[in-house]
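Hey, resending since the last one bounced:
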Amino acid sequence: QLQLVESGGGKVQPGGSLRLSCTTSGFTLDYYAIGWFRQAPGKEREGVSCISSSGDITNYADSVKGRFTISRDSAKNTVYLQMNSLKPEDTAVYYCAAGSLHPSMLVTTTPFEAYDYWGQGTQVTVSS
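The C-alpha cells again:
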C-alpha cells in the first residue's frame, strides 16, 4: 500500500514562504499525478494545485496562482509545493494525493476522492 508523507508545514508570518514536500517509500511517484489539497477549520477541502506524472502539466487554484509553485523531483521521489507571499487565509492542513488520472482530470476541481492514495496532512499556519 502506497502511503504518502507530507512535511514542511509550520507557522510563518504573512508574506513569508514555506516549501511542502510529499514523498513515499517503497514506491515510485513517477507513475502518478499528484495533487495538493488544503482544508481550513470549518471549510471544505479544496484543490490547490496538481501536476501530471511527467511534470508537463500543472494547474493552480485562482487563490494561489502566482504565489505557489508545484514541482517534482524524480531522483528524490518527491513532489514539492513552494508557497510564497503567504496570507492568513492560506492557513489550513495541506494534503497531497497520488492517482492515475486522465489528463482531463488534471485540474484543481478534481476531488480528493478521485485520487488513489493520500497523506495525513501537514499544518500550515500564517499568522503574525
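The first strand starts at residue 5 and ends at 7.

Sorry for the duplicate.
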